[in-house]
Write a structure and sequence with these properties.
The longest helix is centred in the middle third of the chain and has 22 residues. Strand 5, helix 6 and strand 6 form a beta-alpha-beta unit. The protein is an alpha/beta fold. The chain starts with 6 loop residues before the first strand and ends with a helix. It has one domain: TIM Barrel (Alpha-Beta Barrel), CATH 3.20.20.
Length: 274
């Protein structure tokens, strides 16, 4: 049997499936782990501890909890509220048994990206203390610059490494997503820096389709687009990362198809691009 021991799938990837159904189908397909989105837990309807127990009873791991972040706001009260929200998310991750919370850091129209990055750094510095006490790691996920207006002012590995350096906490690292970082000519060098500092916490894969129809919901299966996934995987592995390879795909087209067929396509694409 082909090796799927590192294959993890985000619950959002097969969004039409309920969380119990997704966990069962992933396990039956040989997938090793699931990354759980908050909306999937809410729809499941049980508390976070029971949700984690259900997932593990199906025979798969919980790789991470998605997502925290969104630290920026024009008013100080909004930034304090965001920190409280992130502490709640960290507690939920601990209850579900996820070792990591992925951070989509936020950006606020009406203020500069420089100010947003300052607020992000301050918010993370406050939140990571709570995370450490709960035994949870935080992974900054740099997002493609097309999302810099309102989703994240952290758009490169260079910026993520700089925030990690400034905060200086071992529970803070980076989530590397090929969709968001493949274009960056500093990627190899910054992955090496991150690896030397033991801060590559998770690795997401999918593909960037040529001329996507939607900025958010038209990602491709691995090998369907223009990203050199094997090369980036090689750099990540050379940097010392040994964790799961997490398939995270937002796709109106794939959500509309039979999810059992889609799951087989995910496995085939994963194995074909290893």
């Amino acid at each position: 049997m082909s090796d799927l021991s590192k294959l993890c799938i985000h619950s959002i990837t097969t969004k039409p499936l309920g969380l119990r159904e997704a966990a069962g189908k992933y396990a039956s397909a040989g997938v090793s782990a699931i990354s759980v989105w908050q909306d999937a837990v809410a729809a499941y309807g049980e508390n976070h501890k029971a949700t984690g127990e259900m997932i593990r009873s199906e025979g798969i791991d919980v790789a991470c909890y998605v997502r925290g972040g969104f630290f920026t706001a024009l008013e100080g009260s909004g930034r304090l509220k965001a920190i409280d929200e992130n502490k709640r998310i960290i507690d939920e991750a601990a209850e579900i048994g996820a070792p990591l919370v992925v951070l989509v850091c936020g950006a606020t129209p009406g203020q500069s990206l420089f100010e947003s990055r300052k607020q992000i750094t301050e918010g993370i510095a406050e939140s990571v203390k709570h995370a450490a006490a709960a035994g949870i790691k935080l992974g900054i996920e740099p997002l493609h610059p097309m999302y810099a207006d309102s989703r994240s002012a952290v758009n490169t590995m260079t910026q993520a490494n700089a925030i990690c350096d400034e905060v200086g906490h071992p529970n803070l690292g980076i989530t590397v997503d090929v969709f968001h970082t493949w274009w960056d000519d500093r990627l190899e060098a910054e992955l090496k820096i991150a690896g030397e500092k033991n801060r590559i916490f998770s690795f997401h894969i999918c593909d960037w389709k040529n001329l996507p129809e939607d900025m958010l919901n038209d990602r491709g299966l691995m090998g369907e687009g223009v990203i050199d996934i094997p090369q980036i995987r090689k750099w990540v592995n050379e940097s010392g990362f040994t964790g799961y390879e997490e398939v995270e795909i937002f796709s109106n087209r794939y959500w509309a198809m039979d999810q059992d067929e889609y799951l087989e396509k995910i496995k085939e694409a994963y194995l074909a691009t290893k």
